[in-house]
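Q&A log
Question type: sequence-to-structure
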Amino acid sequence: MNTVPMESGLILAGILFILGFIGVLVRRNIVFILLSLEVMLNASGLAFIAAGSRWVQADGQVMFIFILAMAAAEVSVGLALILQIFRDFKTLDADAADNMRG
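Response status: OK
Response body:
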């Protein structure tokens, strides 16, 4: 059975992480920022899976399950914040959140 080399998995994870990081830095829409964070989390999960398969350890898969759970929690909190920001400011622009008091 042919397997994918670890270097290819890590390169793909690095590319996905960089794309997500650029999305967080460049985009002003809060929904796209949240999506970029998800891409970054999945890239880190892919790196864990690639490393775990390389050393034939289940630790990478366990960390990926932890990352999935953390991503689900992050999405639920993030969407709640997005709904509140949209309700208050009628826009999804991240710069509008600068006017929040707290």
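Response note: The mean pLDDT is 91.
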